[in-house]
Amino acid sequence: MKKVAVVIKDPDQQYEGLRTSLGLLLEATEVQMFVLHHEIANMDEAYSDNMEFLDEMEGERFSNNSANVEKYGFKYITLADVGAKINEADLVIPF
Amino acid sequence: MKVLNILKSEPDETVEKLGEAVSKDNQSSVTMLYGDQVDWEGLVNDIFLHDKVICWW
Amino acid sequence: MADTLGILVNTDKYLDYVVNLTRAAHSKGKDVRIFFTGKGVLLTLKHDFKKLVGKARLSICDVSFRSNGLHGREDEVPGVGFKDFATQAKNAEMVANMDRYLVF
């Protein structure tokens, strides 16, 4: 099973990055999603539902933005540690 | 591991920091697609000569 | 068997890179597959998109195509049939099966 790091830096791509993460999880890929720098710009029903689904599918989600950790349950990660996780991944998908 | 870093645009601070982490633990090389003329056939060769390819932003 | 190259296009910024790389990979006998998703679907109606036809197997995220207001224009996309409007499973298939995987 391949391990994929989905790394989302562009706030306009936060939902697309989540959708891609979920699509990979549904096909039995191991996924770690990283939301960098920005708070989730639009925590609407679609994002919230898909985020829950990602959790149920045992995808992991991390952020270096404290608001995402406190409000939305992301695991905190430093940028240096994102680099380490990227090294462990087979593939990296930047958004 | 041989890692090819492809830069689609000029790297910002985030790309530089993440790229540093990659090059610290791997045999890392970089191809920039912006600016000078790109040898596309050479890039195809490089893609398959490296174990892993990262297309940064 | 030919080397395989999967390309995920998730932005509308780099069509020229995708065309140049695909042309080069095709000329070197690589099997290229491209999946357009998110804003990347906007490239499917650009003039240069047709340069990819015959050089790569093309598929498009149907949800993204619709959410970007393009529903009804499927026939205008060259080299792509209705069955090529697919789900994110197509991307997962590339991740699982391609020798190399790039993102533009």
Rg estimate of chain C, integer Å = 13 Å
CATH architecture of chain C: 3-Layer(aba) Sandwich
- Helicity of chain C, as a percent range: 25-40%
Structural class of the helices, strands and pairings of chain B? alpha/beta
Q: Mind telling me the C-alpha Rg of chain B?
A: 11 Å
* Strand arrangement across the biggest beta sheet of chain B: 2-1-3
Give the count of structural domains of chain B.
1
- CATH-derived topology of chain C: Hypothetical Protein Ychn, Chain: A
Q: What number of domains of chain C?
A: 1
Counting helices, strands and paired strands, the structural category of chain C is: alpha/beta
- Spell out the helices and strands of chain B N to C: EHEHE
What proportion of the residues of chain C form beta strands (DSSP E)? 15-25%
- Apparent shape of chain C: globular
**What proportion of the residues of chain B is helical, as a percent range?**
40-55%
- Uncertain regions of chain B: pLDDT < 50 for 5+ in a row? none
> What is the CATH superfamily of chain C?
DsrEFH-like
Overall pLDDT level of chain C: 97
| Span of the ends, CA to CA of chain C | 26 Å
Reading off the top of the CATH hierarchy, the class of chain C is best stated as Alpha Beta
Describe this structure in words.
The complex is a heterotrimer of chains A (95), B (57) and C (104). By secondary structure, chain A is an alpha/beta fold. Helices cover 44% and strands 23% of the residues of chain A. The relative contact order of chain A is 0.27. Chain B has 2 helices and 3 strands. Chain B is α/β, with parallel strands linked by helices and 57 residues long. In chain B, α1 (13-25) links the parallel β1 and β2. By secondary structure, chain C is α/β, with parallel strands linked by helices. Chain C has one domain: DsrEFH-like (Hypothetical Protein Ychn, Chain: A, 3-Layer(aba) Sandwich), CATH 3.40.1260. A 5-stranded parallel β-sheet of chain C has the order 4-3-2-1-5, with helices on both faces. In chain C, 49% of the residues are buried. Chains in contact: A-B, A-C, B-C.
